[in-house]
């Protein structure tokens, strides 16, 4: 990277800044997640390399500006891991994973100081589902959580009823947000990553609809001129013909 950013290096690399690389960092993160969701270990390895490249580029920019270098980045995260694992690197004990998370949150609170709340560290630029999951996970670590799954289901029923009773479009949007937030809460309790689950559902729909289009082209059909019943029959056919590997599951 030092060569690429140097006088005889790449014109594109020399022009980059922390800000210009922002979208690339986000894109590479999503590509790594896509490989992870697909269970493709070879692709995951490649995408993690691309993600690491983003870290290296930002570290190089930091070094050139005199703010930090790659050593500072690694040293910082190493110190954080040691500090937040006193049950491993110190004399504390942790009976289970829940105890570890509770202690982790307590140590983070000390790092933040009294002025910052425990939710302030959750990036607001996260996708909405991921943000909801993150804030719910954090408050659950201090005991602010449902006692059982049935309570979440009852809350979901309540939120759906409020959505159906909403009078205005603005009120419907607000109540629908409450429905989604509660669904994320239930997913979290079931060990489901809602963002990943929705990506899988999106990919499944894309694959099946693309197969419908392929069938239409093969048969000389115009989908826009088909009745809904005819489209649904074509959907069922596409559902049977798309492979499990194409849609990541067999539902």
Main attributes?
251 residues, mainly alpha, 13 helices, 0% strand
Overview of the molecule:
This protein is mainly α. Helices cover 72% and strands 0% of the residues. The protein contains 13 helices and no strands. It has helices at residues 2-5, 11-15, 22-38, 41-65, 70-83, 86-89, 97-112, 128-140, 149-165, 169-189, 194-219, 228-241, 244-247. Helix 3 packs antiparallel against helix 4, helix 9 packs antiparallel against helix 10 and helix 11 (194-219) crosses helix 12 (228-241). The protein is extended, with a radius of gyration of 24 Å. The two termini are 45 Å apart. The relative contact order is 0.06.
Radius of gyration: 24 Å
Enumerate the spans where pLDDT stays under 50 for 5 or more consecutive residues: none
Cα end-to-end separation:
45 Å
Approximately how much beta-strand content do the residues carry?
under 5%
Largest sheet: none
How many strands?
A: 0
What is the string of SSEs from the N terminus onward?
HHHHHHHHHHHHH
Query: How would you classify the helix and strand content by structural class?
Result: mainly alpha
What overall form do the CA principal axes indicate?
A: extended
Kindly state the mean pLDDT as a whole number? 90
Percent helix, as a range, is over 70%
Please tally the helical runs, counting DSSP H or I stretches of 4 or more residues. Answer: 13
């Amino acid at each position: 990277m030092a060569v690429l950013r140097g006088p005889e290096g790449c014109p594109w690399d020399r022009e980059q800044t922390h800000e210009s690389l922002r979208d690339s960092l986000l894109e590479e993160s999503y590509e790594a997640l896509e490989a992870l969701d697909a269970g493709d270990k070879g692709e995951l390895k490649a995408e993690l390399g691309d993600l690491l490249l983003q870290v290296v580029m930002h570290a190089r920019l930091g070094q050139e500006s005199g703010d930090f270098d790659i050593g500072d980045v690694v040293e910082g995260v190493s110190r954080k891991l040691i500090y937040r694992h006193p049950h491993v690197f110190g004399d504390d004990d942790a009976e289970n994973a829940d105890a570890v998370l509770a202690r982790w949150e307590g140590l983070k609170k000390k790092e933040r100081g009294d002025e910052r709340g425990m939710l302030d560290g959750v990036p607001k630029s996260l996708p909405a589902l991921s943000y909801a999951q993150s804030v719910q996970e954090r408050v659950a670590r201090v005991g602010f959580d449902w006692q059982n799954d049935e309570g979440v289901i009852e809350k979901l029923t309540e939120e759906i009823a409020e959505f159906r009773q909403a009078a205005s479009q603005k009120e419907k949007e607000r109540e629908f947000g409450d429905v989604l937030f509660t669904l994320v809460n239930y997913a979290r309790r079931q060990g489901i990553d809602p963002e990943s689950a929705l990506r899988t559902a999106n990919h499944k729909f894309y694959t099946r609809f693309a197969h419908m289009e392929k069938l239409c082209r093969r048969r000389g059909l115009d989908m826009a001129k088909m009745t809904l019943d005819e489209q649904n029959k074509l959907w069922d056919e596409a559902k049977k013909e798309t492979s499990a590997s194409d849609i990541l599951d067999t539902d």
